């Protein structure tokens, strides 16, 4: 229980106390700035140059507030109440660079931070915070020609509904009506939906910047929701997941719709599939089941391929496997060595100092894109 003296501190006094807090290498730098994902006009949460995050919540009637596990570790970051009813706290250590989901636990109830934008992840809309990365230039919003991300609704007889997808078309798509493009089908992870690759992943900005720099040939990206079998979210739901329903939606309904509605190069040689985490699992299953549909396979923190399961199937032009250095990088590297020795064009990529998180997957897409659709 906190002392009456501590509870009597004002928010200003508490903030000054934070200035004297020590890190392993010295004091916490007091150069905090609002996170780039804050609501318009909101100053908190804030991030400093060392990667620490600071939170400020106005909740005078609350008895306890904690920021969820992952920000500060060891059960989360506990906030301290000032005399004015404002709660403030800073993570115990610097966060990994990139995007992070989080929420608040206030007197046992789970709430989003009113200072930030919300992102669908962890099977619910969560607050999001961005820790600036040293290499963030590749997904930065720049003064370049931009492509277009549009929502489409496509008919699905197998699920008896219209389903949603997002389609990225590259710069120039609307002008040259004769040009056709390859397509990457890109899947999200467990607990997320078809908005994740644009909102959390900045896939469109990554593509815009790569195209503007001349590093890739333009292609279309299609992203749709990967759950079709009505499973309720939960830690054990994936044990009962079967690929059949989603495979039907993707291969029998979405791909024909995209080929009929957009100027695509509608053949295997110009079609790729990739996915992060659960989306990698889906990619793995579907590419093995439908090897005549895709020429490029990519698993981003989503498992590996083995020569045995690829044997006697049409050989892909590329197998790309990646993960963060804080995941299982040796497994990825070893799998690619085995694939290469078996005669496959396989590439591994390890994102340094990241775990199972979006900076890993942003970097993976950046590395993957130039390898796709090489004539």
TrEMBL record:
Transmembrane segments: none annotated. One of its GO terms (molecular function) is acyltransferase activity, transferring groups other than amino-acyl groups. Residues 1-21 form the signal peptide. It comes from Mucilaginibacter rubeus. Gene3D superfamilies: alpha/beta hydrolase (3.40.50.1820), Immunoglobulins (2.60.40.10). The lineage of its organism: Bacteria, Pseudomonadati, Bacteroidota, Sphingobacteriia, Sphingobacteriales. Keywords: Signal. CDD domains: E_set_Esterase_N (cd02858). This is Esterase. InterPro entries: AB_hydrolase_fold, Esterase-like, Ig-like_fold, Ig_E-set, Mycobacterial_A85_antigen. PANTHER family: DIACYLGLYCEROL ACYLTRANSFERASE_MYCOLYLTRANSFERASE AG85A, ENTEROCHELIN ESTERASE-RELATED.
């Amino acid at each position: 229980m906190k002392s009456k003296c501590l509870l009597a501190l004002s928010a200003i006094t508490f903030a000054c106390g934070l200035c004297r807090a020590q890190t392993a290498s010295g004091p916490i730098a007091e150069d905090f700035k609002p996170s780039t994902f804050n609501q318009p006009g909101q100053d908190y949460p804030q991030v400093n140059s060392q990667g620490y995050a600071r939170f400020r919540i106005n909740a005078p009637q609350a008895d306890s507030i904690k920021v969820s596990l992952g920000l500060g570790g060891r059960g989360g970051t506990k906030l301290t109440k000032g005399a004015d009813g404002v709660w403030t706290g800073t993570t115990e250590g610097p966060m990994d660079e990139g995007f992070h989901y989080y929420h608040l636990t206030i007197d046992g109830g789970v709430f989003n931070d009113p200072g930030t934008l919300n992102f669908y992840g962890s099977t619910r809309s969560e607050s999001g915070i961005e820790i600036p990365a040293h290499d963030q230039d590749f997904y930065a919003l720049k003064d370049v020609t931009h492509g277009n991300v549009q929502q489409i609704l496509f008919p699905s007889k197998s699920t008896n509904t219209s389903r949603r997808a997002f389609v990225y078309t590259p710069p120039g798509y609307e002008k040259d009506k004769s040009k056709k493009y390859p397509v990457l089908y890109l899947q999200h992870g467990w607990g997320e939906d078809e908005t994740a690759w644009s909102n959390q992943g900045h896939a469109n900005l990554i593509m815009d910047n790569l195209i503007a720099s001349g590093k890739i040939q333009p292609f279309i990206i299609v992203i749709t929701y990967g759950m079709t079998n009505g499973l309720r979210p939960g830690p054990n739901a994936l044990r009962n997941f079967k690929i059949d329903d989603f495979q039907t939606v993707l291969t029998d309904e979405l791909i024909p719709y995209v080929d009929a509605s957009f100027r695509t190069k509608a053949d295997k040689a110009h079609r790729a599939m990739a996915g992060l985490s659960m989306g990698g699992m889906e990619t793995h299953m579907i590419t093995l089941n439908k090897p005549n549909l895709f020429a490029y396979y990519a698993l981003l923190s989503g498992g590996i391929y083995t020569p045995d399961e690829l044997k006697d199937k049409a050989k892909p032009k590329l197998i790309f496997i990646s993960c963060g250095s804080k995941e299982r990088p040796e497994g990825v590297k070893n799998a690619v060595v085995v694939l290469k020795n078996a005669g496959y064009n396989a590439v591994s990529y390890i994102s340094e100092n990241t775990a199972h998180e979006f900076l890993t997957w942003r970097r993976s897409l950046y590395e993957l894109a130039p390898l796709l659709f090489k004539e």
